[in-house]
Design a protein that fits this description.
This protein is mostly helical. It has one domain. 44% of the residues lie in helices and 1% in strands. Strands 1-2 form a two-stranded antiparallel sheet. Helix 6 packs parallel to helix 8. The longest helix has 19 residues. The chain is globular, with a radius of gyration of 19 Å. The relative contact order is 0.16. The structure holds 1,2,3,4,5,6-hexahydroxy-cyclohexane and fe (ii) ion (FE2) (2 copies). One fe (ii) ion binds next to loops. It is found in: Cytoplasm. Its cofactor is Fe cation.
């Protein structure tokens, strides 16, 4: 099997990077999932510096995202969406709605989102056959992207997709296209721009406000509708776009013990979220009965959105 390394290769990395790379490879190989050579555009995955038309769009996306995702904005969004008064529907109905949605922040994928959900879920199911909660988590992790649709408020892309990060404390350098934070009003606000900002050491990610988007929304919907998914599943849903944490190891000072445990599962999940993106279609009708059975196990029939 050929493995493409999208981070510094072994020889050039320092001890820490080498160790990290080893762990990553072990995780992938353990499960038997083979990493594709390149994304659908023939580039390395998550290469935000490659020269291409798509990348220009992605960079522009992050400029607007970083300027507008402020403490004020997140507070307003949380208030609005906790009403859960936008729709009533089942999980599967929501999967079907995602047929319409294309994510402009994603340098690796321009397929409809339902393909991505099923590709991720099927890949993780193959390698972790006994963790049914993980299969369902994969299926639903991006459902929050319905926020882009008219009946869910038709939020702009910058308020729905892309990597997420904490607001209310200093923005970490590892966040993609971080130079655009210089234009954020929170960047110069002394209450928000120190290492801890409005938080304290080990306060737990649960108490941290993340930039608003599909992750936090789907977490809210799952929780408020009484899902029985384990806490690792909810953690994956809520922080799967938080690459500064799960890829770069930033913001660890805000985590508590439960976060540390859950992060292990998030790191496993991330390989499948990222590397299962391909042009190979999943036969929806064939796998639907299996996922319907998981939905019945972990969710009520209709949810408030
Ligand atoms: O679903 C999204 C997405 O496709 C993005 O491009 C990425 O930045 C996020 O981290 C992810 O959760
Ligand atoms: Fe996502
Ligand atoms: Fe995803």
């Amino acid at each position: 099997m050929t493995i493409i390394v999208d981070q510094p290769p072994f020889e050039n990395g320092n001890e820490e990077q080498i160790q990290k790379k080893r762990e990553e490879l072990e995780l992938v190989l353990d499960g038997g999932f083979s990493i594709p050579h390149a994304n659908s555009f023939g580039h390395n995955f998550r290469d935000y510096d490659v020269e291409s038309e798509r990348q220009k769009g992605v960079e522009d996306f992050y400029r607007v995202n970083h300027i507008n995702q402020t403490v004020d904005f997140v507070t307003k969004m949380r208030q609005e969406y906790k009403k859960l008064d936008k729709a009533e529907m089942s999980i599967w109905e929501c999967c079907e709605l995602l047929n319409e949605v294309v994510d402009e922040s994603d340098p690796d994928l321009d397929e409809p989102q339902i393909e991505h959900l099923l590709q991720t879920a099927e890949a993780i199911r193959k390698d972790y056959p006994n963790q049914d909660w993980l299969h369902l988590t994969a299926l639903i992790h991006d459902l929050g992207k319905v926020l882009l649709l008219p009946s869910f408020g038709e939020l702009p892309q910058w308020a729905v997709v892309g990597d997420t990060f904490p607001v209310g404390c200093a923005f970490d350098k590892s966040i993609v296209h971080n130079k655009y934070f210089l234009e954020s009003p929170d960047y110069t606000n002394p209450t928000y721009n120190s290492k801890y900002g409005i938080y304290s050491e080990g306060c737990g990610l649960d108490n941290v406000m993340m930039s608003w988007g599909h992750d936090d929304y789907m977490y809210l919907v799952s929780k408020e509708n009484g899902t029985t998914l384990p806490s690792a599943g909810l953690f994956i849903i809520r922080y799967h776009s938080f690459y500064a944490l799960h890829r770069s190891g930033a913001y660890k000072h805000l985590m508590n013990e439960e976060d540390v445990e859950n992060l292990k599962w998030l790191k496993i999940f991330n390989k499948y979220d990222l590397y299962s993106k391909s042009k190979v279609r999943v036969d929806v009708e064939k796998v639907k009965p299996y996922y319907e059975s998981l939905i019945n196990k972990y969710f009520p029939e209709k949810l408030r959105w």
